[in-house]
Amino acid sequence: MKDLFSVDIQFLKGVGPKRAQLYQKLGVDSVGSLLQYYPRSYIDLHDTVPLSAAPFDSPCAVQGRVVRKLPVARLSGGRTLYKVLCTNYEQDFAVTFFNTPYPYGQLVEGEDYIFYGKFGGTFTGRQVGSPLFIPAGQPHDVLPVYPLTKGLTSKEISRSVAVAIDAFLAQLADPLPSWVRTQYDLCHIGFAVQNIHLPQSPQAAQLARRRLIFEELLVLQLGMALLKQRTRRRTDYRLIPPDLAPFTAALPYQLTGAQRRCIGEILTDLQRPQPMSRLLQGDVGSGKTVVAAAGVYAAAQNGAQSALMAPTEILAEQHYQTLNTLLQPLGITVALLTGSTKGAAKKALLADLAAGKIDLLVGTHALISQNVTFSKLALVVTDEQHRFGVKQRGALGEKGQYPHMLVMSATPIPRTLALIIYGDLDISVLDEKPAGRREIETFAVDFGKFRRAVAFAEKQIRAGGQVYVVCPLIEDSGSELKDAATAQQQIQQLLPHRRVGLLHGRMRPKEKEAVMAAFKQKQLDLLVSTTVIEVGVDVPDANLIIVQNAERFGLSALHQLRGRVGRSDRQSYCILISDAQGETAKKRLDAMCRTSDGFALANFDLELRGPGDFFGSAQHGLPKLKIADLLQDRMVLAQTGTVCRQLLDADPQLRQNPLLRAEVGRLFSQVGQQGLN
Ligand SMILES: Nc1ncnc2c1ncn2[C@@H]1O[C@H](COP(=O)(O)OP(=O)(O)OP(=O)(O)O)[C@@H](O)[C@H]1O
After folding, report:
1. How high is the mean pLDDT of the chain?
2. Residue 290 has what pLDDT?
3. What residue segments make up the domains of the chain, in order of their start?
4. What is the DSSP letter of 434?
5. Best mutation site among 247, 260, 290, 537 for ligand 1 pocket (most ligand atoms within 8 Å of CB)
6. CATH top-level class of 46-139
7. Among 568, 586, 567, 566, CA closest to 576
8. CATH of domain 441-595
9. ipTM score of the complex?
10. Per-residue pLDDT for 106 more than 70?
11. Where would I find the Helicase ATP-binding domain in this sequence (predicted)?
């Protein structure tokens, strides 16, 4: 469809500059992108009902003959009424349009049509306003319904699409090689485009859909594979593996088998001439940080620098503390750069960095700002990559000569999907928790038990533990939801002798850091917080987490929250407080009580909510798909994966498949990856 993407939509008959602006809002700027603007659903006009059976309050299809078109009536307020009298032989009905002469003009007296709309009015005088209609007996009796923007109706889009198909269908070249179509029984692009928009039958629409889904997933996988190839350039930092003995000897614990295996995989990558691109996937609390630290150690032993980017300041600060404690005794200089590093301190830090005096720079996305220059950046680690995505990952990578990249994620995703979502990465999995960890006991209770939960907290604190209380809101908003500030006061009243802290996202970074540090150093017994503590916070002595209004959190958030405890060999507990009666909420809380396996919970979440939230492209920085769904269409993914490999083996840069290559470029331009060379 290459050329059609350069044909401006405004020059399509019936569109013009004003409508073109509306189309822009839908992301449609060319004839090519219009043809890829697929319907959301279809109205099947096969199913007509007799008028007497048509409901008054929901739309349906009724067949009828136009008896008489009444003269145009001018109404008050400048409105115009176009009214047509029809019959379906047992009863008459009226069809009306306000201010829209076009459909009125299309109806012909004496002809039969199928009308689709809401048949209101009275029992004796049924009336349908602005219905969709087609001549009875027309082969296209399935009408597309498009996602709309204000000012553009589904019918208008359908009309523009029909014009585009009439004018350009013959010019459509198929991006899929013919052997792929034959082998996988896929229809030609021309048939697909025509039948996704104007299906001759529901079966034809199905064939079209399948083919377009196949093409889109293939293009996605090709793009990911090309990105991966790009990272397979030569790096300036082919490292010599260091002796890890001093590193492991300095640790306060033994590495788990999984940690050793993952460190091994990373060190092997670091020796290769191509830069590493690796995802380190591990459930909450599995000990990812120390694995990353081993990579940093290896780089530093080779005289090269590392960077670690965290999604929040709290996490950046925490990583800084952990890594500094771990690495500084080994002679490695660690520094922290966040949005709150300012003035002279920042200037000095940046100068040291550029002079190669800093071995590891930890920070937030401040690391990718322009004035940050490394002298020899060999390893880039990003934490919780779903908050960054493909684009930012690339930006940090550009600060060195193809440095090695390690991405840490706690999001449990089935391997087959991880391969797609992180298609540009190799994967290491930490599938073992540190020794001595016990199952976190989880209870779901109602608000009536709040005082008992606080009494239980007191018991844990007395035994040397620490407690989180998580609330969905910061301050009392007048709703019945528990807010953090009120909860802090209540708990302080119930436990006057305990030190109760408050942490929320609206506090200044310095204040947040101070509270977090106080909690870590056990100057606070109990921390009431909003979800700022959701990701990654590590306070090993914390062994109880109480979540208020637990129904307000999704399963993955609850799992992340619970992961804040159970990070030592202390028995840990999670109390989920909720009065919600809803089925889904109850099922979620039940699942939390049943298992603490992140993968099992993720699968259950998918069943409950559908894939939308979990695999939303916004989270992963993947391009937005137009027709395919990564979860529902995962069977197709297996096929496109095979084709992707076959195509690239024969033609690594897709030079012989320029149409496919152009499709890849277009899909990935959304995530800032134009030059997929
Ligand atoms: N092999 C080990 N033995 C004992 N404790 C360990 C081991 N590895 C890591 N830990 C400790 O376990 C805790 C969790 O480690 P870490 O913070 O790296 O987890 P994580 O994988 O980043 O988890 P999350 O995704 O929840 O942040 C830390 O307190 C860390 O010191």
Report:
1. 85
2. 96
3. 4-35, 46-139, 232-430, 441-595
4. P
5. 290
6. mainly beta
7. 586
8. 3.40.50.300
9. 0.98
10. yes
11. 269-430
pTM above 0.80, yes or no: no
Count of other CB atoms within 10 angstroms of residue 314: 23
The CATH class given to the 232-430 domain equals: alpha beta
Q: For residue 244, what pLDDT is reported?
A: 93
Q: Whose CA is nearest to atom 6 of ligand 1?
A: 434
Q: Which residue has the tokens 């695999």?
A: 615
C-alpha 434 to ligand 1 mean position (Å): 7
Atom of ligand 1 nearest to the CA of 286: 21
- Secondary structure string (H, E, C) spanning 568-635: CCCCCEEEEECCCCCHHHHHHHHHHHHCCCHHHHHHHHHHHHCHHHHCCHHHHCCCCCCCCCCCCCHH
Q: Which position has the token pair 């899909």?
A: 667
CA-derived radius of gyration, the chain: 31
Region of poorest pLDDT, from 134-138, 234-238, 353-357:
234-238
Contact 310, 316 (CB under 8 A): yes
Q: Letter for the amino acid at 130?
A: S
Q: Whose CA is nearest to atom 26 of ligand 1?
A: 284
Residue type, 366: A
Asked whether the domain spanning 441-595 has the same topology as the one spanning 232-430, the reply is: yes
| pLDDT digit string, tens, across residues 405-458 | 898 888 766 666 666 666 667 888 888 888 888 889 999 999 889 999 999 999
